[in-house]
Design goal:
72 residues; alpha+beta; four-stranded antiparallel β-sheet; 33% helix
């Protein structure tokens, strides 16, 4: 069985997190403040065809379905 060095795993994780944050910033910046959007994590849409995540003025969003609260 092969094992990876812990530093390689940490570096790969940091690169993945940075790329996800860049994607989220682009996604959130195209939305208006107070708009209900589809959550980029759970992708849940309510029965009335609205998203479950709300965009706030300080570059944060909260999903009311999965509970994620992320500041970008």
């Amino acid at each position: 069985m092969q094992t990876l060095n812990l530093s390689i795993i940490k570096e790969a994780k940091a690169v993945k997190i940075r790329s996800l944050e860049i994607e989220l910033k682009n996604y959130i910046s195209s939305c208006q403040i107070g708009e209900m959007i589809e959550c980029p994590f759970c992708h849940y849409i309510s029965k009335n065809k609205k998203g479950t995540a709300k965009v706030f003025s300080d570059n944060t969003f909260k999903c009311f379905n999965c509970g994620i609260w992320r500041k970008l």
